[in-house]
């Protein structure tokens, strides 16, 4: 591979053209393994950012892609419909909370978030109310497009860069009580106070249920989410749940909102929707939301991407849902969770470790010093694993098909990194 060309001309996520970091050339992937160009095999601990839940190069998903591409890869969705979209939306509605009855197919997670925010704004517009604000949590992450950025944590993201351009929304303290800790009601105080003060201008609350992902890998108590649902009902504000990271079994439940036994008014899914085969996302809405939006002056929901409902992506996503229906994801994520519960607390013996936490197939080691990205990445590759930390967070969300030996190897590689000062700043 022409890595010199890559370094000189290609942007990777959040990278500099001036000081590009090393990129490892992957030539193929199968099951839980990534294969580098030189033949080295890495146990994947990332599922390509939450997405490849069934592992790579899966025969059933490959078959779905092959048989769809021989019929058509894409047709427009305006005025046309097709079997792959219908099949997928049927599956989605059968898996999602049962109050959700309408599906908007979109291209990426960020777009699904944009769509959800637009739905909420159109909902209140149709009711003749002006509600230009959203309420969300600190430490959240909802994507890189403008509206999604505007509800992402203002301090650990790029808000200050875009000040004056980003709309300013309302941020409540994120929950402090961890998933496995004893619930503390005062966690909800700030949220309650913000809602009380601003509810007349708030269109919706948007948050990541149970696990705040890219904004800090925080795993919080279900009672917080229950409280949020109650307060939204009490103040008459819509609740949007962003399950782009947590959806499809990752937290040990099909959707993370099931931990709190609540239903959102609008739900965003993405990432694992196609099990990492291609980009696709969806925004699901209740009938009350959908019909109110469409009953307004506009007479429709104002959005329609060119590649909406891409048949190839829909066919693979349907196959991925079928695997979820038959493929023992509950036992798999339970096994991964009990391995994390057994192995991660042992790492607390290292001075460098500040906290360890886990839920379902998510395991997190928070360190006291930030990692040295270049060195720790080289260390992990040397140890035969693929883990991509950020800041003080070394985290794993392996494919559900990972066996005990794979999880052991991932945690083992983190342990040896903790023994190597070069891996940290
Ligand atoms: C990744 C992510 C997004 C953005 O999805 P993209 O596909 O990267 O646009 C939004 N919300 C959450 C919770 C995410 O984890």
From TrEMBL:
<dbReference type="InterPro" id="IPR015421">
    <property type="entry name" value="PyrdxlP-dep_Trfase_major"/>
</dbReference>
<dbReference type="InterPro" id="IPR005815">
    <property type="entry name" value="BioA"/>
</dbReference>
<comment type="subunit">
    <text>Homodimer.</text>
</comment>
<comment type="pathway">
    <text>Cofactor biosynthesis; biotin biosynthesis; 7,8-diaminononanoate from 8-amino-7-oxononanoate (SAM route): step 1/1.</text>
</comment>
<feature type="binding site">
    <location>
        <position position="141"/>
    </location>
    <ligand>
        <name>substrate</name>
    </ligand>
</feature>
<dbReference type="InterPro" id="IPR049704">
    <property type="entry name" value="Aminotrans_3_PPA_site"/>
</dbReference>
<feature type="site" description="Participates in the substrate recognition with KAPA and in a stacking interaction with the adenine ring of SAM">
    <location>
        <position position="14"/>
    </location>
</feature>
<dbReference type="InterPro" id="IPR015424">
    <property type="entry name" value="PyrdxlP-dep_Trfase"/>
</dbReference>
<dbReference type="GO" id="GO:0004015">
    <property type="term" value="F:adenosylmethionine-8-amino-7-oxononanoate transaminase activity"/>
</dbReference>
<keyword id="KW-0963">Cytoplasm</keyword>
<comment type="function">
    <text>Catalyzes the transfer of the alpha-amino group from S-adenosyl-L-methionine (SAM) to 7-keto-8-aminopelargonic acid (KAPA) to form 7,8-diaminopelargonic acid (DAPA). It is the only aminotransferase known to utilize SAM as an amino donor.</text>
</comment>
<dbReference type="Pfam" id="PF00202">
    <property type="entry name" value="Aminotran_3"/>
</dbReference>
<keyword id="KW-0949">S-adenosyl-L-methionine</keyword>
<keyword id="KW-0663">Pyridoxal phosphate</keyword>
<dbReference type="InterPro" id="IPR005814">
    <property type="entry name" value="Aminotrans_3"/>
</dbReference>
<dbReference type="GO" id="GO:0030170">
    <property type="term" value="F:pyridoxal phosphate binding"/>
</dbReference>
<feature type="binding site">
    <location>
        <position position="271"/>
    </location>
    <ligand>
        <name>substrate</name>
    </ligand>
</feature>
<keyword id="KW-0093">Biotin biosynthesis</keyword>
<feature type="binding site">
    <location>
        <begin position="305"/>
        <end position="306"/>
    </location>
    <ligand>
        <name>pyridoxal 5'-phosphate</name>
    </ligand>
</feature>
<dbReference type="GO" id="GO:0005737">
    <property type="term" value="C:cytoplasm"/>
</dbReference>
<feature type="binding site">
    <location>
        <position position="304"/>
    </location>
    <ligand>
        <name>substrate</name>
    </ligand>
</feature>
<feature type="binding site">
    <location>
        <position position="49"/>
    </location>
    <ligand>
        <name>substrate</name>
    </ligand>
</feature>
<feature type="binding site">
    <location>
        <position position="388"/>
    </location>
    <ligand>
        <name>substrate</name>
    </ligand>
</feature>
<comment type="similarity">
    <text>Belongs to the class-III pyridoxal-phosphate-dependent aminotransferase family. BioA subfamily.</text>
</comment>
<dbReference type="GO" id="GO:0009102">
    <property type="term" value="P:biotin biosynthetic process"/>
</dbReference>
<feature type="binding site">
    <location>
        <begin position="109"/>
        <end position="110"/>
    </location>
    <ligand>
        <name>pyridoxal 5'-phosphate</name>
    </ligand>
</feature>
<protein>
    <recommendedName>
        <fullName>Adenosylmethionine-8-amino-7-oxononanoate aminotransferase</fullName>
        <ecNumber>2.6.1.62</ecNumber>
    </recommendedName>
</protein>
<keyword id="KW-0808">Transferase</keyword>
<feature type="modified residue" description="N6-(pyridoxal phosphate)lysine">
    <location>
        <position position="271"/>
    </location>
</feature>
<keyword id="KW-0032">Aminotransferase</keyword>
<dbReference type="InterPro" id="IPR015422">
    <property type="entry name" value="PyrdxlP-dep_Trfase_small"/>
</dbReference>
<feature type="binding site">
    <location>
        <position position="242"/>
    </location>
    <ligand>
        <name>pyridoxal 5'-phosphate</name>
    </ligand>
</feature>
